[in-house]
Structures are given as C-alpha cells and as structure tokens.
Amino acid sequence: MNGSSVTDNAFLAAGLASLLAAVVGGGLKAFGIEIPLLKSRMRQGVLAVLGVLLLAFGLGILHLPEPKPAPPVLINAWSTPNFIGVSPDMIGTRMGITIHVNALAGGFCESGAMVTIHDQSGGRFSPSNTTTVQGQLDSDHCEYVATWVYVISNDDIGKTTFHDMQVEVTKDGATLGTKSLSIQVAPKS
C-alpha cells in the first residue's frame, strides 16, 4: 500500500467495511461508510463476498480487464474500369469511371462514415462538375459510389498517364483511414 492509509483506497475501505459489517451483522459505521443492521444470514453472506472482492481489487489481486483496442479500419477503393484506352478518334470523348469505396472495421461496415474523394489530375465528378466529392457510406451495401468523368484530350494520345485520387474516410470528426486510387489512361492496344 506504499504508506497510504486504507481510506485512500476506496476499494480497500469499502471491502473492509463490508467484511466487518458481515461479521457483526451490520449496524456499523467505519471508514466513512454506514451499513444498517442486517436481518438475514443471506445478506451477511452476500456482504462478505462483496467485501472479499472489493479487498481483492484494492490490494491489486484482481484487475479489471483492459479495454480491447478498436480493430483497424480497412479502406477499399477501386474503379470500374481502372484503365482508359485512348486513340486519336476519341479526342473530346467523355469517359465515365465509377469509383467505389468501402470501410470495414473488424469485418463490420463503418456505417455512416463520411467519404471524401479528391482528384487533382484533370477529371471532374459528375454531376457536380467539381474535383472533390463527398458522401456517406451506404449502410445496405457498405459502399459509397461516385462517377468520375474524364474528357480525352490531345495530351492523352500516344502516352501513358496515371490519374491519382485521394480517398479519405472519417467518422465523428476522426480520420478512419486514407487510400490512394490510380486510373491509367494509355493508348489502346
């Protein structure tokens, strides 16, 4: 007990008071705890068991279980398709790509989590026509779906480029995880 008194440890004080009250049948005031007279042996027995448990916690013999850490959140992000094959006759064509995101913690959906997808590579999200889109995971399918639209230009002809997007999943103001997603634009083979 490192030199501290019994009254400094609430478990010890309550345990000793409970045991003493059980032995004398109640009518006890000790360590700032008052226990009335006990009229049955059953109550005395229960009080004795409670006293022993409280003493065990107070002396450090028994410990409360440590809380388990939250399972890591697995962020999945993918596109369908993940490749755009281009040719000179496709200049000006608008290509729609579906972006899918889900988030699982311990195999369970992070229902209600907020998904933000940010693109800095030249595409736009439909129908908002912005480079950032945001929404919640669907609780039925544990998925958020967005449509990314890319307009094929002269710059895409004859070379391979990768269009990177950042996916962030948050819940209650905390970031659950991030994921990068890359869509390839290359000449048709």
Relevant terms:
42% strand; single chain; 2 helices; five-stranded antiparallel β-sheet; five-stranded mixed β-sheet; Immunoglobulin-like; 189 residues; alpha+beta
Please outline the helices and strands.
Elements: H1 10-24, E1 28-30, E2 33-35, H2 41-59, E3 73-80, E4 83-86, E5 94-105, E6 108-109, E7 114-119, E8 124-126, E9 132-136, E10 144-151, E11 161-171, E12 174-187
Parallel strand pairs: 4-12
Antiparallel strand pairs: 1-2, 3-5, 5-6, 5-10, 7-9, 7-11, 8-10, 11-12
Helix pairs in contact: 1-2
In the CATH scheme, the class of the largest domain would be: Mainly Beta
Which structural class matches the secondary elements? Answer: alpha+beta
Count of distinct strands: 12
The CATH superfamily of the largest domain bears the name Immunoglobulins
CATH topology value of the largest domain: Immunoglobulin-like
CATH architecture of the largest domain: Sandwich
N- and C-termini, Cα separation: 78 Å
Count of runs of 4 or more consecutive helical residues: 2
Q: What would the principal axes of the Cα set say about the shape?
A: rod-shaped
The share of residues in extended strands comes to 35-45%
Tell me the major beta sheet: 5 strands, antiparallel
Uncertain segments of ≥5 residues (pLDDT<50)? Answer: none
What's the gyration radius in Å? Answer: 32 Å
Q: What order do the SSEs take from the amino end to the carboxyl end, as H and E? A: HEEHEEEEEEEEEE
Fraction of residues in helices? 10-25%
Mean pLDDT: 86
